[in-house]
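Give me the 3D structure for Pyridoxamine 5'-phosphate oxidase N-terminal domain-containing protein.
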Amino acid sequence: MTITPFDPRVLLAESRLGVLATIKADGRPQLSPVQPYFDREAEVLYVSMTEGRAKTANLRRDPRATLEVTSPDGRAWATAEGTATLTGPGTDPRGPEVEALVHYYRSAAGEHPDWDEYRSVMVSDRRVLMRMAVDHVYGEKLG
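Predicted structure for Pyridoxamine 5'-phosphate oxidase N-terminal domain-containing protein (143 residues):
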């Protein structure tokens, strides 16, 4: 029997639900559930968020972030650490800030049924794209 070693990057790439940790002004962690997309080849993690939320404000002040995901059965976990950059919010549905969100959506979920509507909502919701260059990944699979 061949045992395949656990690669936490595989779990990061497969997961569409995780917890993002940012740093509050007082130094304590602030945790938010998010829908991440991990580009394994580029070692970059993406998350769409809204301007004005705690995680967005925290990242504008201190770009260090950590994301953790778990397997559906809870027996494996993976953590990615890195430095985030934020793009947006955009004011033009065809502007570069919204184009970055379109690229994120296509990578994470495929084609949207109405791109014009998506672009409009990204502007009206004041969406921001977090791009985190991952510099450390670790995790474990139990039993």
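The chain has a mean pLDDT of 94. Let me know if you want a second pass.
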